[in-house]
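Please decode residue identities from the backbone states below.
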């Protein structure tokens, strides 16, 4: 899978989470949990593709190493953010604080989209 395809699938999965979150009530969390799992898997695939692309660029176009280093730093920070998010926002915590969860998801999705946008600037 190409990085562009993985990025598209990741962004689509984020939209699915957003839709599930918009429809969710404290007693109907199943759709959200399912879409959240799919988005986590899409993120993992995207990050593997991105690492492969940066690895190739470091060898083929050393001038892109700076962009890849910036992405590496953002991906590391994103990994911590994702782990913290998933640990904090259990199904019980989500049901207990939907507004807090929505705010946390907004912050997380902003960080993910920032990485996707920067990755799109890399040469093919």
């Amino acid at each position: 899978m190409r990085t562009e395809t993985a990025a598209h699938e990741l962004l689509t999965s984020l939209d699915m989470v957003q839709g599930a979150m918009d429809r969710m009530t404290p007693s109907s969390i199943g759709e959200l949990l399912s879409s959240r799992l799919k988005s986590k898997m899409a993120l993992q695939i995207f990050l593997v593709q991105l690492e492969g692309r940066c690895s190739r660029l470091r060898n083929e176009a050393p001038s892109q190493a700076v962009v890849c280093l910036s992405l590496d730093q953002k991906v590391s920070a994103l990994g911590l953010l994702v782990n913290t998010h998933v640990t904090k926002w259990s199904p019980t915590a989500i049901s207990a604080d939907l507004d807090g969860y929505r705010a946390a998801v907004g912050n997380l999705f902003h960080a993910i989209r920032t990485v996707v946008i920067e990755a799109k600037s890399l040469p093919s």
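Observation: The helical segments are 3-23, 30-60, 65-88, 91-96, 98-120.
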